[in-house]
Design brief:
mainly alpha; elongated; membrane
Length: about 140
């Protein structure tokens, strides 16, 4: 067995930063949905799905960060790979909020662009960590 550490420190730091950023992202997106529902004629049948998708995304994010962190720290590729798969779902939802939600504000574009770039970086580091664990 390997006596040296394979778990990725940059990845672990990124999980921590992403966790904090996602709390901000979630609250900001939630606040903007509430704001839009007050300011714009937000159709009720669009409000519920937007809110539901945001909460689903939050659940995915918690799972993704938990599994990713656990997989990285225990140097197991399975949880890390599962975390990577979940990230794909999060990316799709982020793109939804970036492009397809009922009203897209400039702030939506900015926070989703940042989120997508962190997902991209995280995914690259996850693949590298998985490769290190497997080898």
């Amino acid at each position: 067995n390997n006596s040296y550490q394979l778990s990725s420190v940059p990845l672990q730091i990124l999980f921590y930063i992403n966790g904090i950023y996602y709390i901000f992202y979630f609250l900001a997106t939630l606040a903007m949905i509430v704001y839009k529902s007050q300011v714009f004629s937000y159709p009720d049948d669009f409000l519920a799905p937007d809110l539901a998708l945001l909460f689903i995304m939050a659940i995915l994010e918690v799972l993704q960060l938990y599994l990713g962190s656990k997989g990285n720290l225990t140097e197991e590729e399975a949880p890390l790979a599962l975390s990577l798969v979940i990230t794909i779902g999060s990316v799709i939802l982020s793109v939804y909020f970036l492009v397809w939600q009922t009203y897209v504000l400039k702030a939506d574009v900015i926070i989703n662009a940042v989120l997508l770039s962190t997902y991209g970086l995280e995914s690259v580091l996850k693949v590298m960590a998985i490769a290190a664990f497997v080898s």
